[in-house]
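debug: dumping io for the single-chain case to check the tokenizer round-trip. Nothing else runs in this session.
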Amino acid sequence: MKNYKIIEQQIPIQIYQRLRVECGLSRKTDEASQVGLKNSIHSMMIEFEEEIIGMGRIIGDGGCFCQIVDICILPKQQGKGLGKLIMKNLTDFINDNLPESCYVSLIADGNASFLYEKFGFKETMPESKGMYLKK
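debug: decoded output
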């Protein structure tokens, strides 16, 4: 994808918070963002014309369990295959760096499940049911 640059590094807190809000994800406090970002297993951003326009992260213990989170692309850049670019980067990291038995999960909002299925992700039902606790 010409003119789009992948940057693999910890996401700066200001960029993380801006992208979450502008992409329609929930707002995170400075404290939560600071703790969460530094504990990422892998982080990546997409830059276009010197602006960060998308991101994705892998969190977890790096061995037994991991989760793909924070996949988002600015609305003006959506529909250009950038979600696939993010997922390819994250799944390449998973395949190259995580143990074979590592359980990798994600939560698919809206129609995002169609993208994730292309990378081998499947629904957990009926074997298991995803649940959450929001503090």
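debug: round-trip ok. The two ends are 39 Å apart (CA to CA).
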